[in-house]
Fold this sequence. Notes:
The complex is a heterodimer. Chain A is α/β, with parallel strands linked by helices. Chain A has helices spanning 27-36, 48-57, 92-101, 112-117, 147-163, 172-181; strands at residues 17-19, 22-24, 41-45, 80-84, 107-111, 138-140. Chain A has one domain: Rossmann fold, CATH 3.40.50.12280. Chain A has 6 helices and 6 strands; from the N terminus they run ββαβαβαβαβαα. In chain A, helix 1 (27-36) runs antiparallel to helix 5 (147-163) and helix 2 (48-57) packs across helix 5. Chain B has a domain at 2-109: NADH:ubiquinone oxidoreductase Nqo5 subunit (Beta Polymerase, domain 2). Chain B starts with a helix and ends in a 40-residue tail after the last strand.
Amino acid sequence: MSSIAIDIHPTYKPEGLEGQGFFATSLDKVVGLARKNSLWPLPFATSCCGIEFMATMASHYDLARFGSERLSFSPRQADLLMVMGTISKKMGPVLRQVYEQMAEPKWVLSMGACASSGGIFDTYSVLQGIDRIIPVDVYIPGCPPRPEQVLEGILKIQQLAESEERRRRESPEYKALLAKYGIE
Amino acid sequence: MSELLEIVREKLQNKFEGALLNAEMQYDYPVFTLEKSNTKVILQFLKEDPDLNFHFLTTMCGLHHPENAPEQEFALMYQLHNMPKNWRIRIKTYMSKQDLDMPTVTDIWKTAGWMERQEFDFFGFNFVGHSNLTRILNMDEMNYHPMRKEYPLEDAMREDKDDKMFGR
């Protein structure tokens, strides 16, 4: 039996100056790398997409391999707000409060058709898309989206987490965005 | 099923002369139409009579038929169930839009507490004697009763729905 060369790269190495026992690179790259590989999601699961998310977290499509090992249901300890399912207008203020309680840096992922645009429920009681009340980073369309699509959405959030500036809360564009939603 | 219709019809006609406006089978259920003024008394009798024993209120709902005559525009439907004998019947009462006051049945069946709040929320029925008649499923700030037929189902806030594409 010939030996198989194992070629595993847990993560890529950013550009930097390497020497015996040290590695010098820019702080932004290191922080981006750390943030990207340790996103703690808050599963704001309301309906069917929440069940599909449970399948994504389970062992077959394991989300934990991407660093989201620890889900937190407390917004104070979460990085990524995943809104999964139909949000009614009565639930809107609750979702907004959960978003405001999260600490920077935070990202929002809208999973499924109902969270992105109201889905098939174009009615008086359903909020037609959570981007009417909170800013959203990544939308995952589908009803429900396959777990592979959810993983791709999370990978896109990871790209954002790695490439955004370290303190984006200070940037004028971000402040303008929050002002548009009426969030301080 | 129509034996049940006859049993209940006979009982009601013996006890309450002339109160039964209509008794027929609709969609495999015996449906009895009553006047609003004596509905609560009859519902209590249906629960407490040892032969009929309709001890379980399965559901109740409101109806709005604007195509009916104005005195029959709104209706309430109570569905009752006798579990030991597996008897199910429906009781309907019709009323007009100006006269939506109805005595509550929460003292007969506690389940009605939630359902009467829902009917108030969606149609505007006023249940006299209910301990907490407020909106239950919609937002508290909503100022209309959305299930009435004059209001559209769709959200009014959308600007991007093209009538031609959506067949309207």
